[in-house]
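Appendix B: complex inputs.
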Amino acid sequence: MVQSSYRKVKEEVFHLKRLTLKPKCLDVMAGGLVVVLNAVYAQQNDIYTGYRVILRRNRRELTAMVDLSNDLVKAGEIGLFEEVSKALGGPAHGAVELELTSRPQSIEYIKAKLDGHTLSTPQIRTIIDDTMGNRLSEGELASFMTACYIRGMNEDEVVGLTQSIVATGETLKIGKSPILDKHCIGGVAGNRTSMVLVPIVAAAGCYIPKTSSRAITSAAGTADVMETLCQVSLPIRDMEKQVRSIGGCIVWGGAINLAAADDKLIKVRNPLSLDPKGVLLSSILAKKKSVGAQYCVIDIPVGRGVKLNDMTEARSMARDFISLGKRLGITIESLITNGEDPIGNGIGPSLECRDVLAVLEGSGPHDLRDKSCQLAGTLLELSGKAKKGAGYAIAASMLDNGKALAKFKQIVEWQGGDARKLNSHSVPIGSCHHRIIATRSGRVSHLDNKLLSRIARACGAPLDRGAGVYLHMEKGDMVKAGAPLMDLYAESEGKLEVALKVFNTYEAVEMEKVVLDSLRE
Amino acid sequence: MVQSSYRKVKEEVFHLKRLTLKPKCLDVMAGGLVVVLNAVYAQQNDIYTGYRVILRRNRRELTAMVDLSNDLVKAGEIGLFEEVSKALGGPAHGAVELELTSRPQSIEYIKAKLDGHTLSTPQIRTIIDDTMGNRLSEGELASFMTACYIRGMNEDEVVGLTQSIVATGETLKIGKSPILDKHCIGGVAGNRTSMVLVPIVAAAGCYIPKTSSRAITSAAGTADVMETLCQVSLPIRDMEKQVRSIGGCIVWGGAINLAAADDKLIKVRNPLSLDPKGVLLSSILAKKKSVGAQYCVIDIPVGRGVKLNDMTEARSMARDFISLGKRLGITIESLITNGEDPIGNGIGPSLECRDVLAVLEGSGPHDLRDKSCQLAGTLLELSGKAKKGAGYAIAASMLDNGKALAKFKQIVEWQGGDARKLNSHSVPIGSCHHRIIATRSGRVSHLDNKLLSRIARACGAPLDRGAGVYLHMEKGDMVKAGAPLMDLYAESEGKLEVALKVFNTYEAVEMEKVVLDSLRE
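Resulting structure:
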């Protein structure tokens, strides 16, 4: 076995020079803070690709990385991409002063992590600050994520990372108690429990500043579903005021600057789908911490086709959340739930919204009602609003007595929607429709979350709000030949046809020994 | 301790679509194969940042990565940076067909390496092929390098990587024997042994197809020094013919396509100065293997201010080279040398060239002569051209009997130079000159390679061929007040002044208890 590496003498960059350069605007986004210098001119000035420079113009200053070109810019010029040009006050202004700067301190800390050392909270904080200041390249950040993945992170590091991420963004100050929150690890189609849970706990006298995501690869995120009824991009102070006044909100997290570093880290985690456990935990907990949550319930779906399909790992993650919550001052309960098949009947923003409203009206899909009551009940018990064991019943009563529906309508109105005539049938769905029927009888043995999401996306979801899939059966049901399996909704016949092709290509619905076929109605 | 990661369900990308897009040329280099799609249009088509696409136009095809923009391109358009536009046949042509492609196989192998598995040679070969085909992002490659650094590489992996790198480029076929080569780990100013060693061993009847590098952060690379006399960018077949005919060449490795993957890997290794040991060894050995070397000597300088400053690590590296050489069919001897201070008197292309010519003329700096004879002697013994213990004397005789000088002139002539009036005084040096004298007496205790290189660079080296530093003393010398320490040469008084400032800022020459000063002549 070859040893891991030769020790290297620390290379320091000594530089005296400042250069004054003529800007040349390159009307293109570079996707980062990069400037272009003439290759020969740069070499003469001891500047190489990847060097970091401080740029100054008037009183603006930023750090960027150097790229070299033979033709794009001449000696004495500096090529500015849109991001840099904008940050320096636009293309109209004068000369740019450039000064070489040394490698950021973080690089030493990242190398220490590579070498197996544990990082202190101030060291982690420096890495996060340099990340936010664009002082680390994609490769350097990828290297850090890789090191976190291979070396692992101890609890102190995860806590330090969480606190550092929280410190990069704004924090919510509700000034009331108890403040609750909820998070789901994701992957289950139609899993819109937040929209049921938020009005339940708010109606019960709690405060829940819920931020949700939009769909990335699924057919709908909670923010997409809520947006079929009202605004989801609120200024942070409006969100604060709303929660203080009526107990809850359901907004898009992407529109507000909470835990800002997290977005940058997610972008880096993506390429290899690495998700180092410590970073994943920090990412989630930073969002909870930045809204001021005191009590939080985590939904961890387990099963074929979702992120986790192993109970041992799910239990380990559940325990990690609870333990880290204690360190961060959040009382957490983790629920490991069945993530095998979709929740509710609808998949797609408006169809899922109809399910949510039906549950709030006291009827609706039983699995969505049941899961929402379990999560809400847990939160009520954690916060002391319900005695141990009594949470579920209180949550269910809020659905049955209409208080949760009234609270939901209040939330919709506060977020600029019109709740006067709102009910589970009033939400418009796609004008084109196609029913898929079972060609033979049999028992439904599997409904695939990912493939059903794919079909709903082919229908046009999430951008076409009314598009998606409506399921007529669930896992375990006996279905007879000729009975409806699902309805597809879309805004155009063309999209419906594409969705049918997707349906016919993959086996989204598995039945015991039954061959499925699709017939146009 | 939190476990290293949760297992993740493998995410596969299913895609049916092909899109036909209108090209929009972005007259900028992207530094990689990247295309820009309209963000909304991309989402509608299930395409996300970082997805890989195959692009086709006429019969050209390439793989690129997707970036998204809201304003740069419209729906149905594809933004092409210069590299992509060129690869598709230039801006004048028609529509571009885009097809989504799955993640390259390498990603699984990189993740396996992260998880501590040993990679097979075919797996490593796939990673190198995907690297050459631009199918891996900067982040993914950085992640691979980080994994190689943390996990280490066993000998099988290093051999596999070396063979894979060799396979990406051309190989030299001299058709003669013995074929020799030499490599230096680097970091010592003025260390121009190759230019002495090549003519010695060629004059002794061996074949040595020497490729060298240009200066990156030093004041001169061997290619820069040789270029003061003749061409160093030769077509690979001319190089082959020259070595077959006269036994040797001294050319710039960057101009020929040997071990092509190595350049890409070096670019990735740079950001964190990682240099995973296995990759470093592969990188060097691939170059030796691709020229067909049978016998090779490796110069490993050790000391303050060079890459290695620890004898244990130097010995370990020396052994690794020998052991890997056996596996690759190259007989290697490693020499651990003193890298504390510069070799020869000159630092800068022409000044170093004068040293080399003086040694070839039978005089010159004794340390350059001695080291060159040691390295050349070792090669002669390895190849059987000299008996064990007789190599040094044979090498020295080649310098004293003029055969090495004659061979060197032959090499210069073959590479397009004029060797008729060539001698150690004929090489022109900078017209501006300044002498630095000792202000007090004392013994020279340290001459710093890096700082002296920095002074020579401030003088204008390596681009101004005649610029640089000429040392009047070496480590250990007793210097009297008023005696010359060094001469600075430059093409302009301005550069001379900058170099003097650098000299006055750092302590490049350390003397026992002696304060240095600089006076203008």
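The two ends of chain B are 66 Å apart (CA to CA).
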